[in-house]
Each structure stands twice: as structure tokens, then as C-alpha cells.
Amino acid sequence: MAESESGQDKTEEPTDKKTKDSREKGEIARSKELNTVAVMLAGTGALLAFGGALAEVLMELMRVNFTLSREVVLDQRYMATFLLNSGKLAIFATQPILLVLLLAALVGPIALGGWLFAAGSLAPKFSRMNPLSGVKRMFSLNALSELLKAFAKFCVILIVALVVLAADRDDILAIAYEPLDQAVVHGLQVVGWSALWMAAGLLLIAAVDVPIQLYQAKQKLMMTKQEVRDEYKNSEGKPEVKQRVRQLQREVSQRRMMAAVPDADVIITNPTHYAVALKYDAEKGVAPLLLAKGTDFIALKIREIANEHKIQVLESPALARSIYYSTELEEEIPQGLYLAVAQVLAYVYQIRQYRAGKGKPPDPLKDLPIPPDLRRDT
Predict the structure, then answer these.
(1) Are the C-beta atoms of 13 and 222 separated by less than 8 Å?
(2) Is the Cβ–Cβ distance between 265 and 280 less than 8 Å?
(3) What is the reported pTM?
(4) Spatial separation of the C-alpha atoms in residues 132 and 64, rounded to whole Å
(5) Which stretches does the entry tag as region Disordered (predicted)?
(6) What CA–CA distance (Å, rounded) separates 313 from 276?
(7) Residue-wise over 17-32: b if at least 16 C-beta within 10 A, else e?
(8) What is d(CA 282, CA 260) in angstroms, rounded to the nearest whole number?
(9) What is each CA distance from 115 to 24, 73, 104, 123, 290, in whole angstroms?
(10) φ, ψ for residue 71, nearest 5 deg
(11) Which of 25, 193, 290, 312 is the most exposed place for a label (fewest CB within 10 A)?
């Protein structure tokens, strides 16, 4: 079992952050054998598919370049023309095969680790220039596994090549007795099928190498319990820091809430333990909004600010508790409290009219209608 430098066993699955950071560094599972197999299979397949056209072009090149007139042989100016035309024909003939090889070289790595461009992988690593580190890599377990894979590939290709040569022995010998045009096409077919079978033989090596690479990549990402705890602290923050942040957020929220109290139409209290500040905008026609609420010390501060700004303070313990527990800041009161709050606002309006000398003093508020589901007795 893998152990970290601290001696702890790496028993924990890698976190999302660890996996993401590793991917950004370019440290993902890659299989050279899978890439080799992909390129060889694609190349040999393209050779078989386009080999006939390639053979015809080769025959045309030989026919053009080996059947020269006396005028062409004696004039050096034709040399560049023949070379240019031959190059165009060769490029045109090999272009399909080269495109297939390019596509295979891109798809092979993507098939295992996905598309990834890590700029950090391009940065020079001076540790690789250390001779001692190079010697350690030469005699490491990874170097031994690479040596074993190379020997296994040699053995597989050798065995497949011997089997293919034995099977194609008659075809190979028959090429010597065929006309030139037919021999070229036949030769390309034999080479293509032989290479295809040898590439297919490497599938066995890739089938073994891919799981090994995936396992090794995962083992490198495994974490100890301490590493998981440290990562959580670094990503989420230390408990004391988070507590301080929450405290600052509460203080900012309370200051903003207290600044809204002077805009309230009425303060409803418990009378000492609860206090809520309500505002009603008759022009908008919406339900009353809760501007501020609090208990104990905060309730006392709300009453003090209300007294400073001459905002009406009413005692209704049941309504104060109901609004406090059912409504969040800057939200409308529940529909079940509309009637009770309407009576409170009407009472406040009558008090204002009376103080302005435009009416008689209002009667004391009676018991306010509060639905049982919104009532809080404590």
C-alpha cells in the first residue's frame, strides 16, 4: 500500500480538487502502447485502402522518370521540372494516408485521458537535468516495467511476423514472377496486411498497459486522511476565520437593518423581548414589508431608534412573535396576518390624525385576529 512522506497510508479517494489540479498540471493517465497501436492500425488500414492508387502513382513516377527523351537528358533545365512534378504526384498520392495517420495520432491520446492542453507541462523542469535523478529513473520500477513492455512487444511482433511470413510465403515468392505493374500492387497488399496483423498483435500489449496506467495514475492521486483534512481547511477556510466572517456579515446586516428602521410606519413589540418594524406603501398597493426585527438587545435598539424618530410603537405580543417567526427581512408579511396588520396600521393612522388635531382619540386595540398556524406563544 502506498505511503506518504509522513508515513500515513494513502487510503482516501482523491477529491475533486486534487483531480482537477492534477489534470491542470498534465498529470493524467496516458498509454504509449495505445497511441502506437492506434497509429499503426490507422496507417496500415489506410495503406490497404489507398494502396492501389498509391501503386498507380508510383508506377507513373517510374514511367515518367525512367523514359526520358534525348532532348530531356541533354538539357539540365528539365531536371527541376521533373523533380517538381514528381514531388506533386508523391504528395497527392500519400496525402490520404498522412491525414489518417494525423487523425490517429490525435485520437489515440484523447481516447484514454481526453483532450488536455497543460501549459505547465511546457515549462522546463531543471530537476530532470540532474544526473543523479536520471540514474534513479534508469534503475526505477517504472524503467523496469518499460523494459519488460519493450521486450514483450518485440516477442509479440516477432511471433506475429513469423506467422504472417509463413502464411504469405507463396504470395511473396509469386511476386517475382508477376508483371511489374501487378507486382507493385501485390507487394503493397502483402506489406499492408502483414503490418496490419502485426499491429493487431500489439492490441494485447495495449490491453494490458491501459489498465496499468489507469491504476498507477489513480494511486498517484490517492490521499492520506491528513491531506484530505488539510485540503478541506484550505478550501473552506479555518473554523475561526469562518466564524469571524459570519460575525462581520451579521454586523453588516444589522447595521443595514437598523438604518431602515426610521422608514417604518409602526414598531410592534412583545413589549421587551421582540420588536418588528413594518412599512406600508399605499401607492404601490402591496402588502406591508418587514424592515427590521430582533430580540432582546436588538429589540431594544429598534425601540430606541423608533423613539428618536417619533415612530409609533405598539405592544402586541402575539402579533410581534408571529411576524418575527413567519417573515424574513424585506419580505411581505404572510396573507394570514393581513387583517391584523391592517387594524394596526388603521390605529396608527387614527393616532396621527388625532395628534394633528383632525379627529378624536382612537379606541384601544382589541384582540387581533391571528391564525392558529401563525401564532407563536413563546
Answers:
(1) yes
(2) yes
(3) 0.44
(4) 58
(5) 1-27, 358-378
(6) 10
(7) ebeeebeeeebbbbbe
(8) 18
(9) 12, 54, 14, 19, 53
(10) -65, -40
(11) 25
Residue pLDDT tens, the chain, 378 long: 455 555 467 777 777 777 777 777 767 777 777 888 888 888 888 877 887 787 788 788 888 777 777 777 777 777 778 888 888 888 888 888 889 888 888 887 777 766 665 555 555 565 566 666 666 666 677 777 778 878 887 888 888 888 888 888 888 888 888 887 788 778 877 887 888 888 787 788 888 877 887 887 788 888 887 777 777 766 655 666 667 777 777 778 788 888 888 888 888 888 778 999 988 887 776 788 888 888 888 888 988 988 888 888 888 888 888 888 888 888 888 888 888 888 888 888 888 887 877 777 777 777 788 888 888 776
274-279 and 289-295 strand pairing: antiparallel
Written as nine digits, the cell of 293 is 426585527
Cell of 70: 534525348
